[in-house]
Automatic annotation (TrEMBL):
Its EC number is 2.7.7.9. It is an enzyme of class 2 (transferase). GO terms for molecular function: UTP:glucose-1-phosphate uridylyltransferase activity. It catalyses: alpha-D-glucose 1-phosphate + UTP + H(+) = UDP-alpha-D-glucose + diphosphate. The lineage of its organism: Bacteria, Bacillati, Cyanobacteriota, Cyanophyceae, Oscillatoriophycideae. Belongs to the UDPGP type 2 family. This is UTP--glucose-1-phosphate uridylyltransferase.
């Protein structure tokens, strides 16, 4: 894997959900450890594909935020050496991959979310680890495939390195799929190819989206939605902590999108249409489609 130097050194991957939509498989193993086959033909857990995406963007250290009950599963994969009996059975080229996994494991930090209180709460659990740096935020059940020579994550990191403000990866989504997406509005900046965001909304209904979230240049039934990659300044942690103290919940949980809108109002925020595809592995049908299509 080619190393890239970056101003952004850290990535956070929340992986603390119960995985109820993938039950009963998630009774056996965390959904982030479900297998996927990559282009190289290697079967790997989803979390490794996400970590590799981060490393391809120049990320040096990665925090996985998980439940205490799942912590051992992640530590076993990233931190525990193979048993001697297992190591003696694998092929020579697989031994090389064992050494590669050890180098990836050196970058991994396992954090715990004491209570499951939403995506925003999980992100906030990484506050002390991230410190005062900008960081890449990735979803624990999404994997990415770029259509450019650089990865999707690297595309977003480069946006931050250009503008110095928080940025959200975006994609175009048809109206009928809007109900399960974060959605944005804003104004295109032709000189940068970015969109200066004017609103970030969590799973808006279609009437609201048509009235408030239209973006010039898109077809009537198309909207800009969140791709699943974020590049955020550390100010997001202050906002999330305040929302937790105030009990500011949406749909019963501490939501990240609420804090993103507050962050946008305070510091400004950009959106970037990433050139690539995001594969959602968090529900049975989309997981099956991801297994089928990710390698292609």
């Amino acid at each position: 894997m080619t190393e890239v130097k970056s101003q952004v050194r850290k990535a956070v991957i929340p992986a603390g959900g119960f995985g109820t939509r993938l039950f009963p498989a998630t009774k056996a193993i965390a959904k982030e450890l479900f297998p996927i086959v990559d282009r190289d033909g290697i079967a790997k857990p989803i979390i490794l594909a996400i970590a590799e995406e981060a490393i391809s963007a120049g990320i040096e250290q990665i925090a996985i935020v998980t439940r205490e009950s799942d912590r051992a599963q992640f530590e076993d994969f990233f931190k525990t050496p193979l048993s001697e009996a297992f190591a003696n059975k694998i092929k020579p080229h697989q031994k090389e991959y064992v050494r590669y996994l050890e180098t990836v494991g050196e970058r991994i930090n396992i954090l715990t979310q004491p209570v499951q209180d939403g995506f925003g709460h999980a992100v906030c659990c990484a506050k002390d680890w991230v410190g005062k740096e900008p960081f890449l935020l990735m979803l624990g059940d999404h994997i990415y495939r770029s259509t450019r020579e650089i990865s999707c994550a690297r595309q977003l990191v480069e946006v931050y390195e250009r503008v110095g403000k928080s940025a959200i990866g975006l994609t175009v989504t048809p109206a009928e799929e809007l109900y399960h997406c974060g959605c944005v509005a804003g104004t295109w900046q032709p000189e940068t190819g970015l969109i200066n965001l004017s609103e970030v909304a969590e799973k808006p209904d279609l009437n609201y989206a048509r009235s408030h979230l239209r973006v010039e240049g898109l077809a009537e039934n198309d909207f800009l939605t969140v791709f699943g990659l974020y590049l955020l300044t550390p100010k997001i942690f202050e906002i999330l902590e305040q929302n937790i103290r105030d009990g500011r919940r949406d749909r019963g949980e501490i939501q990240l999108t609420t804090a993103l809108e507050q962050l946008r109002q305070l510091e400004g925020m950009y959106g970037c249409c990433l050139q690539g595809k995001c594969f959602d592995t968090g529900v049975p049908l989309s997981y099956w489609q991801s297994v089928r299509d990710f390698r292609l």
